[in-house]
Amino acid sequence: MNDTYITLNAICKRYIAKNGTVEALKNISLSIPKNEIFGVIGLSGAGKSTLVRCINLLERPDAGEIIIDGEKLLQLSKEELRLRRQKIGMIFQHFNLLEQQTVLSNVCFPLEIRGIPRRERQEKALELLEKVGLAEKAQCYPSQLSGGQKQRVAIARVLANDPDILLCDEATSALDPETTKMILELLKEIHDTMGITVIVITHEMKVIQEICSSVAVLENGEVQEVGTVSELFTNPKSRAARRLLLLEEKEDAAYVG
Ligand SMILES: Nc1ncnc2c1ncn2[C@@H]1O[C@H](COP(=O)(O)OP(=O)(O)OP(=O)(O)O)[C@@H](O)[C@H]1O
Ligand SMILES: [Mg+2]
Q: What is the pLDDT at residue 100?
């Protein structure tokens, strides 16, 4: 049950910008078991988004290896990679919905790309909207929805391709605490019922605490610590982890005070 599903082996990524070179990922190695909700936490600029973009090769690392379910991603042909990517869903902080399309069309979109007949894709899209609790909004446009509802649509859309991996890059960062909780609950339910391996990228310890079982702490493009969430909270080993825990505590104190 706990065998490794996603392996990142010594991933390096550097960006060459006008004002110099940025080492966004320095020798990142991680093993993520199947069916886990795995967290990656770090402050802004730590390299979190670069890391998730490397997992599905939206970004090609300069060095290293990505192995998913025994398959070396960097060795796949273009067509093989396209098919593999269909099974790796991604959701974002700003939802990335098609604003000119209805909620239903948004969810149908990936099915349309795959050439699924109209009736079949509408049926599936409606089922998925029901799953995320938004069936009654099928004919609305994204602008008529709240942030939490928009993220639900994005989740329904990403499920249309029956992904086996779901990458969530700050998926709740634009939402208030209560809505965040509801979206995290939905992600957990999807994970539990559909057997999807979920990778949650966040800068908030609360998000990690809420749904992750294991977590990697990222700072300056380096993994500072990896372990179970309970280990991290009870016995943080790295300075980066202690800093993140302290930041959260201060925020809570300010909130109460
Ligand atoms: N396309 C790019 N060109 C140049 N530098 C980049 C590019 N993308 C990212 N970087 C740099 O790489 C580093 C890591 O960026 P990344 O977006 O992965 O961080 P992050 O942890 O996701 O931050 P945030 O929490 O703000 O989203 C940063 O220093 C960033 O400026
Ligand atoms: Mg980011």
A: 97
Among 162, 187, 214, the domain-final residue is 162
- Most informative mutation of 12, 28, 50 for ligand 1 (most atoms within 8 A of CB): 50
202 plus 174 within the same structural domain: yes
CATH number of the domain to which 226 belongs = 3.40.50.300
pTM reported for the whole predicted model? 0.95
Q: What ligand is nearest to the CA atom of residue 23?
A: 1
From the CA of 169, the nearest ligand is: 2
Q: Indicate whether 83 and 169 sit together in one domain.
A: yes
Does any ligand 1 atom lie closer than 6 A to the CB of residue 53? Answer: no
Residues 99 and 75 in one domain: no
Alpha-carbon distances of 37 from 58, 147, 184, 199, rounded to whole Å: 21, 23, 11, 6
Residues around ligand 2, an ion, CB closer than 5 A: 48-49
b or e along 75-98 (b: 16 or more beta carbons within 10 Å of the residue's beta carbon)? ebeeeebeebbebbbbbbbebebe
Question: Do 147 and 171 share a domain, yes or no?
Answer: no
User: What is the distance in A from the centroid of ligand 2 to the CA of 174?
Assistant: 13
Instruction: Print burial letters for 38-63: b (CB count within 10 Å at least 16), e (below 16).
Output: bbbbbeeebbbbbbbbbbbbebebee
pLDDT at res. 257: 54
Beta carbons of 92 and 170 less than 8 angstroms apart: yes
Q: Which domain holds residue 234?
A: 1-6+30-60+70-87+165-257
* Tokens matching residue 31: 């093993």
Residues 179 and 82 in one domain: yes
Residue segments in the chain with a per-residue pLDDT below the cut of 50:
1
Do the domain assignments include residue 23? no
